[in-house]
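TOKENISE THE FOLD
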Amino acid sequence: MPGAPRKAKGGAKGRWSGDPALQAPVPVPSAWRLVTGRGDGIALQAELAEEQARRREARRGAGGADGGAEAVDTVRAGTVVKARGAQFELSRAAWSLVPVVSFGLATPVPFLRRACALGERRGTGAFAGYLMTTLLSWFTIALAPEESDALAMGSLLLFVSTVVGSVHTFLTFRETWEAPAPARVRGGAAVPGTAAGSRPVSVEDRNREAVAEARARLRRRRRARRLALRRPALARELRIGRGSPAYDDGGLVDVNHADADMLVRRAELTAAEAAAVVAARERLGGRFSSVAELAVYAELSEGRLAEVADRLLCVGG
């Protein structure tokens, strides 16, 4: 088609002809593979979609037709990354069914687990409320005469508490899933996931705690990334990706605002790589459209981008 950009031979890292701004390698499939299998891949997926739309508009403005669709032809339709892992969904479904399969007898159990995870009054309050409701309904059913109003009221109370408890568990399960382990104290120093006065912590315990803390950081990064994608104005207010002491983003770095020192400290880039990112950002007028652009404008290799992609995001404005 005349005027449409053409992709030269050479695989995923070929060069585009037609638009001078796209003469550099365009590793869209490579960047896509970086996030395949990652729990937070939906963020980069959205960023890549934004980049695709931006380039299509740029080509149309330059006189191109629909050739921009070729940029995504190399991405298979079946590689859509889900926002939440299957493990989370299965766990949430299983815990939500506990009140139902136990006929209301175990309705307080998910909230006992939630109270232990949160360690807050709201967690213990929900557990105490469901426990009293369950005991009251079962005692009423057990002691009420047959075909009496008390028996009907006890049965209705049990049914309502079972349904409400199941729905409540489903809606609040993320709080339990993402809650960090409570801190314990060992030798006067706080140790994540332990309790004061507990037994000495073994190497295996410390390893498990380190893994749990690393997973908690990953969850915080996913949560902060979703917030930045859905509500960028709020993300800017919270200073997500800029090392804000008020909001724990799990160590995310906003490549549109972070200086070279922060890129080195938080994203673990080398000094040369951080300088290249800052220089590329200045050439682009102070804003990247997606993390994938780092491979084009800052010349980060595919392997290097794979190592740091989960720590980076682009917050507009």
